[in-house]
Design goal:
The chain has about 450 residues and is α+β, with helices and mostly antiparallel strands. The chain folds into 2 domains: about 250 residues, Bira Bifunctional Protein, Domain 2 (BirA Bifunctional Protein, domain 2, 2-Layer Sandwich); about 100 residues, Anticodon-binding domain (Rossmann fold, 3-Layer(aba) Sandwich). The chain contains 13 helices and 25 strands. The protein has a 7-stranded mixed beta sheet, with helices on both faces. Strands 22-21-23-24-25 form a 5-stranded mixed beta sheet, with helices on both faces. A 3-stranded antiparallel beta sheet has the order 5-4-8. Helix 2 packs across helix 9. The chain is globular. The two termini are about 35 Å apart. The chain binds adenosine-5'-triphosphate. Adenosine-5'-triphosphate (ATP) binds next to strand 12, strand 15, strand 18 and helix 9.
């Protein structure tokens, strides 16, 4: 099994990620988070919110609706131009984005949203080695729905194609409520929907997903400075907070052909996935396009008045847009670790403890000794008040360790016969497998200290 298969299988088996609607045969590109996946995903979002919103005096949080006025999607250019160019393979019929194939160059026409081929490159299908038909087909990935109940009176609406659009629509509200000093940001974690035509890369490309966005409003002349600053912030966040190894990350600047027309500059933080380098998060200098467009279509003035000069101007936007699912996937790939242990392979998810679904697991040494079980249950109940805690009394201790390692639990606490005497438990560390005796009444402090590391 390759790494991708191992991760997909672990996710299903241990309750991180399930294919959606599996009993009906599943739905391509749609997944459900199971009991451990939802914990991991919440921990990722919690850290993002803590770092990008709560710890910053210059960023305001928002939770916008999924449905917006349909005109917003015309203004943003999505109705016409949210298209993906795709080519088909003659042999396996799989669709591929040609710009992901070697040597291809494409450019999007601003007015029509259509893609033009500038140069045809490799015609070898990356899936089966078959021949690619050099004809680009275009697909609009914006998902449609309708508002209203009476046939004939229904109004076409769209599910959010990118979560950041609420931020532009609520820009004036935030400015009016908080009178923020520029530069300032508005941040959101929200669902987005895209009729993606290529699947098969697990959580990397799904049709329903969550994005986390910071839209940072700056004076036009200060764009470069803050763009640089945010690049540093977001890179460090993936390394320090998600624990992703720097060797598996890189910066990639979009070429002029590839860049969306209103973006003055665009850089991706790429991760080294099992199929190669690909996007993890996009950082864009979106210029003043969004505020101008929504201003035009709504008739509102979406600008900023300089406190001192009283001059009105349209701020530029520096955007940092990442995906929760993609980050979760990259984090799992990065944390996956195998080592030879006696006769079997020990699988360890070396997740940062702050991300781990369970922080600690509690075991009675033997499940059929009521005194041990009673004390272990008491410790479990106490720890549960502070940390997400797992209980396991099946099989032997070795098997329980293996099982917790595989889901990334950083510490396992065992209650044994000596515990009944000295009120100390054995705490075993996931990464080093080292064991130490800790007093029961010092356990919370011990775990809290470790979590601060
Ligand atoms: P890509 O071409 O790599 O799919 P994109 O350039 O269309 O991504 P953006 O529109 O810049 O992506 O979205 C910002 C972020 O949202 C991406 O970096 C990614 O983390 C996440 N994202 C975008 N599309 C998807 C998707 N279909 N499934 C999961 N995450 C996604």
């Amino acid at each position: 099994m390759d790494l991708m298969e191992k991760i997909v299988s672990l996710c299903k088996r241990r309750g991180f990620v399930y294919p959606s609607s599996e009993i009906y045969g599943g739905l391509a590109g749609i997944y459900d988070y199971g009991p451990l996946g939802v914990e991991l995903s919440r921990n990722i979002k919690e850290l993002w919110w803590h770092d990008m919103v709560r710890q910053r005096d210059d960023v305001y949080g928002l939770d916008g609706s999924i449905l917006m006025h349909p005109k917003a999607w015309e203004a943003s250019g999505h109705v016409v131009g949210f298209t993906d160019p795709l080519v088909d393979c003659k042999k396996c019929k799989k669709r591929t984005r040609p710009d992901k194939l070697e040597g291809w160059r494409l450019a999007k026409d601003n007015e029509s949203g259509q893609w033009k081929i500038l140069k045809i490159g490799s015609l070898k299908c990356p899936e089966c080695g078959g021949e690619i038909i050099p004809k680009v087909r275009q697909f609009n990935v914006l998902m449609e729905t309708s508002l209203g109940v009476l046939e004939g009176e229904k109004v076409k609406a769209y599910l959010k194609g990118e979560s950041c659009q609420n931020i532009y629509l609520d820009y004036v509200n935030v400015v009016d409520s908080f009178s923020p000093k520029i530069p300032f940001g508005i941040a959101q974690i929200g669902k987005a929907f895209r009729n993606e035509m290529t699947h098969g890369k697990f959580l990397f490309k799904t049709r329903e997903f969550e994005q986390f966005d910071v839209e940072y409003f700056v004076r036009p002349e200060e764009t470069g400075r803050y763009y640089k600053k945010w690049k540093k912030i977001r890179w460090n966040w993936y390394v320090k907070r998600m624990g992703i190894k720097e060797k598996n990350l890189r910066w990639r600047q979009h070429s002029e052909d590839e860049r969306i027309f209103y973006a003055r500059d665009a850089w991706d933080i790429d991760y080294h996935y099992p199929w190669g380098w690909d996007e993890l998060e996009g950082l864009h200098d979106r210029s003043d396009y969004d505020l101008i467009q929504h201003g035009k279509f709504s008739g509102e003035t979406l600008g900023y008045v300089d406190e001192k000069t009283k001059k009105h101007f349209i701020p530029n936007i520096v955007e940092c847009s990442g995906g929760v699912g993609r980050t979760l996937f990259a984090t799992l790939l990065d944390a996956y670790h195998e080592e030879e242990d006696k006769k079997r392979i020990r699988v360890v998810l070396k997740l940062k403890p702050q991300l781990a679904p369970y922080k600690v697991a509690v075991f009675p040494l033997l499940a059929n000794k009521p005194k041990l079980v009673k004390l272990a249950k008491k410790i479990y109940d106490d720890l549960k008040l502070q940390f997400n805690t797992s209980w396991d009394d099946r099989g032997n201790i070795g098997k329980r360790y293996y099982s917790q390692d595989e889901i990334g639990t950083p510490w396992c606490v065992t209650v044994d016969f000596q515990t009944l005497e000295d009120k100390q438990v054995t705490v075993r560390d996931r990464d080093t497998a080292k064991q130490e005796r800790i007093a029961i009444d010092k356990l919370v402090e011990y775990i809290n200290n470790e979590l601060k590391q």
